[in-house]
Amino acid sequence: MFKNIYQKVLIIILLSASSYACAEKDKKTCYSNNVLHQADCIKHNNINLQSKLNLKNNKNQQDYNKWMKDLKNKCEGTISFSSGEGIGLIKEQCYSDGYKERIKYLDNKVKQKDKNSDDLEITYLPYNSQDHLKCLESNSKDSCQSVNLISSNKLTHAYSFINSQYGRGVVLPESSDGKLIVISPFSDEGETFLNINIVDKFGVVTEKNLSGKTKFIIDKNYNLIYVKNGKTIKEKL
Fold it and tell me: Is residue 201 helix, strand or coil?
């Protein structure tokens, strides 16, 4: 009796060690004869792929909601046509393929940046002032995922209202009512400010300056949102 128990325990230990070894080996490939193990491995890798997408500012892309809805319908829909242990594997592989395609799409999009009618690269909404300042400070690819900096020379060449002493700024997409918005940094008595220029469809320019210490965003509806004296301010640009 004890011999049989010992043999069973030994088998369990060997199987556990084997599974661990396979897991280490399958971190990249996830190939396995065990369907459940393969599904779990791909599911784990999918978490890493989601993290990569977050770093590429995926959730702030204009088509994010539609892309996520389409992918979910596609992958969750596969369950209706499948049965047995392979259901989870098919679903996770579907998500994996979708995430990888999305990463490739975003990488190509970065290489082929969208430009406005003045041939300047645009920064997509929502705009975050801290992302802009962080990108200026570090000038690294990881810190500049959500902003496309444009040199002061290019901005002043395209727009006469931009001060040549300003630093590298960003141009937002033209609004539905024809507004152009350019945001540029400048220094005054040792403090950093962000200058927001708004040009309406008639060419009338208005501007607003906010301290770099004032964290603000411009959402997808072109609302300027920040906190002042403990109160949240929301202004339509």
Answer: coil
